[in-house]
Design a protein that fits this description.
The protein contains three helices and two strands; from the N terminus they run αβαβα. A two-stranded parallel ribbon has the order 1-2. Helix 2 packs parallel to helix 3. 15% of the residues are buried.
Length: 71
């Protein structure tokens, strides 16, 4: 999925006053991130400060989320 198209889609929802749903993740799990990304959330925030994640796993998490509709 194209990240630019994802951002445009979410921006259009915000402009039209639609509800935008998201989730914070702090578990450092690519599998869980992909599940959350496919669960219908508009955005996912990867929290590296308060959980099990780190810089090394973050890139893998971003790759897992790339195939979902979540920004």
């Amino acid at each position: 999925k194209n990240i630019r198209m994802k951002n445009v889609k979410m921006k259009e929802k915000i402009i039209s006053d639609d509800t935008v749903n998201g989730s914070w993740v702090n578990h450092g799990s690519m599998v869980s991130d992909e599940i959350i990304g496919n669960a219908g959330f508009d955005w996912v925030l990867i929290d590296l400060k308060h959980g099990e994640g780190n810089d090394g796993i973050m890139y893998q998490q971003l790759q897992a989320l790339e195939s979902t509709d979540a920004t």
